[in-house]
Amino acid sequence: MERVYNFGAGPAVLPEEVLAEAQRELLDFKGSGMSIMEHSHRGKEYDAVHTEAVDNLRKLLDVSPDYSILFIQGGASMQFAMVPMNLLGAGASADYVNSGTWADKAVKEANLFGKVNVIANTGKEIPTRMPGNEELKFTPGAAYVHITSNETIAGAQWKVFPRTVAPLVADMSSDILSRPFEASQFGLIYAGAQKNLGPAGMAVVVIRKDLAERVSTAVPTMLKYKTHIEENSLYNTPPTFAIYILMLVTRWIIKMGRENLYRQNVEKAARIYRAIDASSFYKGTAVREFRSDMNLTFRLPSEALEEQFIKEASRQGMKGLKGHRMVGGIRASIYNAFPLAGVDALVAFMKDFESKNG
Ligand code: PMP
After folding, report:
1. Nearest to 156 by CA among 119, 196, 101
2. CA distances from 237 to 15, 40, 77, 110, 215 (A)
3. 131, 186, 199, 326 — which has fewest CB within 10 A?
């Protein structure tokens, strides 16, 4: 069997040693005679997995006991609705930054529950970018401020998070645990698990506990953060296998060293951006100072060449380079688990492709 280089945006590449360990334990989890998938979510075997998953995230994100770490099904898209359902009281308004497709979806859901002030809108700009902090005009009394830390489709990323008076809420689906940040600056962070954390099937939510108290009694039990805080994400049956893999991934991050991984992410992105900047054949689609280190987007001189690029790369074992269907172009997603060797393979391929077609 030969593993390919998977540049997919999510579900995405997972550390090979995590997959191998899951495979070793698949039929018989730690001598229990059954798979972790078959264990009760109330049993001691699963309890140890769940506890380690939460503890690892707590350690990696370095959050204080004022915060809870939750696993909630429905992905990041459900969080688009849960955030306003829980945090936006009757008659209140919230500030949203519209920075692209994902932020726009968050805005649409919030509109169902209260007044939304779009305080900056770079969502349709090309080249793509995030607003500069100086462009943001916060609304006094807003219930919270929502940002999207990394626009997965546009390939644009906040580099310095804004300082806000109202609690800052961030969709970190495509860059959580890829770089250092100060968790205490945020009231709530959420992320779909299927990029940097594990398989699809849930979102990780990091919430300052006092914010969960805002919720009205009319919100259904499963959609209240309070329920999941009180029950440690075990109100109902959680996605146990997804949490097990997340536990292994976070254990791997701790072993690799968080800082080493961060440094490697910067280096990986820099190698590809250098290749783009050294050529007039490839053109980056994001404004330089907001270029994402996770999803690197660029164009070739024509769509026909882009199609050929994707096809030839795929033949050479580099998969998932097609840009999002809404925008086209090329997108190389290089999350934590994506190896440096795969980046070098892409850079070599880009040079070769340009020399033949440029
Ligand atoms: N936000 C961002 C930034 C994303 O990249 C995605 C998925 N690509 C989502 C939200 C939606 O996530 P999910 O599919 O888990 O609902």
Report:
1. 101
2. 26, 9, 20, 27, 23
3. 326
Q: What is the pLDDT of residue 1?
A: 73
**Which residues are marked as active site?**
102, 171, 195
The residue type found at 133 is N
CATH number belonging to the domain at 17-255, selected among 3.40.50.2300, 3.40.50.2000, 3.40.640.10, 2.60.40.10? 3.40.640.10
Helix (H) or strand (E) holding 319: strand 318-319
Taken as a whole, the chain contains a residue count of 358
Q: Is 155 in the pocket of ligand 1 (CB under 6 A)?
A: no
For residue 89, name the pLDDT band (cuts at 50, 70, 90).
Answer: confident
C-alpha 354/C-alpha 282 separation (Å) is: 8
The residue-averaged pLDDT of 248-271 equals: 98
Q: To which H or E segment does residue 59 belong?
A: helix 44-61
343 token code pair: 């980046």
Pocket test of ligand 1: the residue of 174, 175, 190, 246 to mutate, having most ligand atoms within 8 Å of its CB, is 174
Average the pLDDT over 259-283 and give the result.
Answer: 98
Answer yes or no: are the C-beta atoms of 291 and 270 closer than 8 Å: no
**In the prediction, which pLDDT does 177 show?**
98
Query: What are the CA-CA distances from residue 3 to residues 22, 314, 316, 349 (Å)?
Result: 16, 12, 12, 18
15 lines ligand 1 (CB under 6 A): no
Domain boundaries along the sequence of the chain = 17-255, 258-357
Is any ligand 1 atom within 6 A of the Cβ of residue 333? no
Q: Do domains 17-255 and 258-357 have the same CATH topology?
A: no
Per residue in 165-197, pLDDT (tens digit) is 999 999 999 999 999 999 999 999 999 999 999
